[in-house]
Every structure is written in C-alpha cells, then in structure tokens.
Amino acid sequence: MNVIEFDHATIRIGGHVILADTSLAIKHGEFIGVLGPNGAGKTTLMRAILGLLRPSTGSISVFGRTPRRGDAAIGYVPQVRTVMPDLRVRGFDFIASSVRGDRWGPPMLSRADRKMIDDSLAAVGARDLAERPLSDMSGGERQRLLLAQAVLGEPRLLLLDEPLISLDQRYQETIIELVGRFARDRNITVLFSAHELNQLIGALDRVLYLGNGRAALGTVAEVVTAPVLSQLYGADIDVVHADGHIFVLSRGRDVERSDHLHDDHAHDHDHQRHA
Amino acid sequence: MTIMLTITTINAMLDYDFMRNAFAAAGVAAVVSGLVGYFLVLRGQTFAGHALGHIGFAGATGAVLIGVPSVWGMVGFTVAAGIGMGLMGERVSGRDVAIGVVLALSLGFGLLFLHYYTAFAAQATSLLFGNVLAVDPAMIATLIGLALITLAALAAIMRPLIFASLQPELAEANGVPLRFVSTAFLAIVALAVSESAQIVGILLVFSLMVGPPATAQRLVTGLWSGIVLSGGIALAEAWVGIALAYHTDWPVSFCISMLSAVAYFASRGWLPRRSPAPRAIVAEEEKPWTH
C-alpha cells in the first residue's frame, strides 16, 4: 500500500517552481532519506504532504486522500529555523502544548492525555526530560524531545525535517538509530531529510533526492549515481565510493559537506549564556 | 506580639479610603499584568509591551485634549497599536527597529498634546509614573471591567497561544491561525498595559508585566504553576509596595519597581547556574542507543 503518492504534482512558491511535474510513490513502512542541496525543496515537500501547500497542477495523496492540516496520523518534526529562546518551560508541558493545541479555550489535560505524553517520552527514551526546562537542554536533548512530540498518539507516518542539524556526530547517530528502531518496531513510514547521505545509509530503504525542481526516488545504487545527481544539481557531479562511504563531489569538492552548516558551537554558547 | 502589631498596622492603613482604593486597584491590575505578562515573557515580546505603554501615553494625553477620560484614550490607542503590530507579522528582524521608532514618535505626540493643554501638565507625571493613591471607586470599577474582558480573552485563546508560542512551525501545521493568535494576544497585552499603567505609570509597566513573570519562570518550570505564581508575585509586589510606600512615604511606583527588581535578581541567584554536568549524565544515558 502506498502511503504517499505524487501524481504529476507541481508545487510553486511565489511563482518559483520548487517541484515540477513530480510523480512518486512511497510504500508503507519505508524509511526514506530525503536529500538534496539547500533550497532543493525538502521542507516544501514535507509541507505539501502536511497539506500546508497545494500543488498547482497534479495531485498529492497521503493515506489515499488529499492531505489536510492537523492529520493525527502524521508526526512532524519541523526544521528548527531559529535558535529556541530561553524557554523556562519543562519538557512535559512543551509536548503537552501540542495536544489539541488548535482548539480554543484554556488547556486542560485528561488522564489519558498525560499517559499518552508519558508513553511517547518513554518510547524515545526521553523520560528524564519531562521535568527539565528547555533552557537547560542540549541540542540533542531538544531534538529528542521533538521526536517524542512527533510520535505522540502513535502516528503512521513520520516527517523529520533536518533533525540532525546542529548536532554533533555522536548525537546524530543516536537520533538515526532511535528513529530507525522506532519505525521498524511499529512499522511506520519515515521521511528523514538530511544533508549527508552516509550516516543514513544503514537506516534507509530508499533515497529521495531533490534538486533543480526534480526528484529521484530509488535505492542508493539507483539514485546516487553521477548521471542522476548531475541532473539534479545542475552541475557535473562525481560519485566516489570509498571505504563503505559515498562521496558526492563537484569539481573535487564534497557538495554535501560544504552545504552543511555546523552551527552547533554558536548554539551551545548561546545556551550556556542564558542558562 | 508581632502578629498583633502587624494587624494593627494594616487596620490603620485600611482606615483610609484612598488606601483601600489603592489596594483594590493595584490588586486587580497586578493580577492581570502578572497573568498576561507570563505569556509576554514566554514569547519574548517584552519590548512590544514596553512600546505599547509609550503609545498609550499619546493616547491618554490626546484623549484629555479632546475631553475624553485618559484611560479610554489609552485603551483605544494601545489596542489599535497592538492590533497593528500583530498584523505587521512575524518579521522579527525589522520589527524591533520599527517599534522603537513608533515608541519615540508616540512620546513625541504625547508631548505635543501636553503642549496644547498646559493645565494637564501636573497629570503628566501621574501618567508617566502612576498615581495609585488617587484612584477613585469609578476607576476601580473600570479596572475590574477591563480585567474581566482581558482575562476572558486570554482564556479564550490560551491553548493555541501556548502552542504557537512554544512551537510555531508545528502549530501552523496543525491549523493554528498564527497571525490571528499573535494579533489577538497583542490586543490583550494592550489592555493589560493600560491597566498596569493606571497603577505604576507607563514608564514602569515592566515592573508588573515583566518582573513577576520572569521571576516565576526562574523559580518554576511548569506552565500552570508558572502562570499562577506570576499572578501571585505581581499581586504580592503591588500590595507590599503600597504598604512600603505608606510607611516610608516613598512613591508607590518606586516601591513596586524596586520589589520587582529585587525579586527577579534574587530568583536568578536562587538557582545556581547549571554547570556542564547534565551533558555528562546524558552521555551515560545515551549508551544503550549507540551500539
């Protein structure tokens, strides 16, 4: 069964074509690594699946119907665009804010709501974060809290937008391992966007490479090749296999690494200053 | 013995009409400020709150110039400005500068209005720094009415407001109308600022709207406990401030602003700074997931 289907879908933002005439199908239980240069449309793709953007032509279907906002079957970790401010709110309440957060009135949690939050924290090994304020958490802990939030209410599809950004290497592996295990155990479909392919290789079933308004979906062997990527990047790309790793090079430079902004140091200093 | 003395002192204080009025008015405004202020601090919009006070100065002086009670000029101007700021949207980068310019312009207009209504000059001080000892029962009724509207509106948008404040991207994905929520919230802040300004004046609005919530957030990290504590601290600071003013003959607004600052810095010292230790603990917990 296909969880996500794009049928000749074109998505524009402010006149710019982000995805042109794209058709693809993602099956139930697949772990898809979403890759591509900055601005290739990884976030746009996820927003379209969430029903926040509609295709100008063609159609998108998720679980066999047109995507609609607030679908409880989809768990979403948005890319953290801004460094979170000095939030003196404990992890539990941070997650609780999303429980029926679109309804009016003061927030009230039932016993079942509390259990659901406790369960999702436990599912990603984040119980210890329930009582700690966000201002005291490291980048990795915050990311894990967001993951707990995404698995709230047992969704069948997880959209994780750059969950590795600003994390150090070890934390990145932890998050990938955690998501992979969680998805396998519960047979959940995952779209995991990232800058670097190599870390994800062990976890993913197929890759979805975006670039130049186009998308290529397939196994690593099918997609991560010089001809396919050259087209997506709009430049001459070499793919070098070495030591079990795959390097995507443009004129000898590693395009994935040069894309990746390691801003975790600035982030941490900020965090220390506020704490 | 001490308790008896305290009760006697409080009784003596409450013998005066103006003191009873002051406690009532300050109590109402402080609770509203503390509750609304909690969200203002949570959202990192304290500067907007400050600016609304200054815009209210132009409204208040302008209203008097055309023969309308100053409080209504203040409410009208601040609410309009709050809605305007909300509609300007979330372009944070340019916004602080825009707010700063509008803030200065508003004080300028306030000065212009005062210039044309010279008899009002004495009241300028009470607008800027508050004059809670001159509050009459009609003003208390006005404050209570405004408080009920403010808190009802806050309760109505509270759930999406918290969601949008903590996780704007996810809130948007779940269908929360971000623009509407932030605009409605700034209108609510405008009402709270108008109330708070009647007690401590527009220049010291921060002492009731930012000090208590910031203190509460240092002390507790639960959402509800933070909200309740913020209202409680604001109330305590307002009342103790008035009592302190009664005994020392210092201005009430000074006493409240001092208590607000003392409480905030005490709360910062209260909890020791977190050392890098939590990271080390996390590293231990991380192991089961790695290999």
Topology (SSEs and partners):
The complex is a heterodimer of chains A (275) and B (291).
Chain A: E1 2-13, E2 16-27, E3 31-35, H1 42-49, E4 57-62, E5 74-77, H2 91-96, H3 111-123, H4 139-150, E6 157-160, H5 169-186, E7 189-193, E8 206-211, E9 214-218, H6 220-223, H7 226-233, E10 237-242, E11 245-250, E12 253-254, H8 255-259, H9 264-274
Parallel strand pairs in A: 3-7, 3-8, 5-6, 6-7
Antiparallel strand pairs in A: 1-2, 1-4, 8-9, 10-11, 11-12
Chain B: H1 2-14, H2 17-42, H3 46-65, H4 70-88, H5 92-116, H6 121-129, H7 137-166, H8 168-173, H9 178-200, H10 205-209, H11 211-219, H12 223-248, H13 252-270, H14 277-290
Helix pairs in contact in B: 2-7, 2-9, 2-11, 2-12, 3-4, 3-5, 3-9, 4-9, 6-9, 7-9, 11-12, 11-13, 12-13
CATH homologous superfamily label of chain B? ABC transporter involved in vitamin B12 uptake, BtuC
Report helical residue fraction of chain B: over 70%
Which residues of chain B form runs of ≥5 with pLDDT under 50? 274-291
Question: What spatial order of strands do you see in the largest sheet of chain A?
Answer: 5-6-7-3-8-9
Shape of chain A: globular
Helicity level of chain A? 25-40%
Largest Cβ-defined interface? A-B, 44 and 38 residues
| Low-confidence runs of at least 5 consecutive residues of chain A | 260-275
Large-scale geometry of chain B: globular
Number of helices of chain A: 9
Order of helices and strands of chain A: EEEHEEHHHEHEEEHHEEEHH
The CATH architecture of chain B would be Orthogonal Bundle
Q: Describe the sheet with the most strands of chain A.
A: 6 strands, mixed
The radius of gyration of chain A is 19 Å
Largest sheet of chain B: none
Number of domains of chain A: 1
CA-based gyration radius of chain B: 21 Å
Q: Helical stretch count of chain B? A: 14
Describe the structure.
The complex is a heterodimer of chains A (275) and B (291). Chain A is 31% helix and 27% strand. Chain A is of the alpha/beta class and 275 residues long. In chain A, the strands form 3 sheets. Chain A has a 6-stranded mixed sheet, sandwiched between helices. The termini of chain A are far apart. Residues 260-275 of chain A have low confidence and may be disordered. With 291 residues, chain B is mostly helical. Chain B has one domain (2-290): ABC transporter involved in vitamin B12 uptake, BtuC. Chain B has 14 helices and no strands. Chain B has helices spanning 2-14, 17-42, 46-65, 70-88, 92-116, 121-129, 137-166, 168-173, 178-200, 205-209, 211-219, 223-248, 252-270, 277-290. In chain B, helix 11 (211-219) packs parallel to helix 13 (252-270). The radius of gyration of chain B is 21 Å and the shape is globular. Chain B starts with a helix and ends with a helix. Mean pLDDT of chain B is 85; it is low at 274-291. The A-B interface holds A 47, 50, 52, 69-70, 76, 78-79, 81, 85, 87-90, 93-94, 96-98, 100-107, 125, 128, 131-133, 136, 138, 140-141, 149, 170-171, 173-174, 177-178, 275 and B 42, 44, 155-160, 162-167, 169-176, 217-218, 221-223, 226, 273-274, 278-279, 282, 285-286, 288-290.
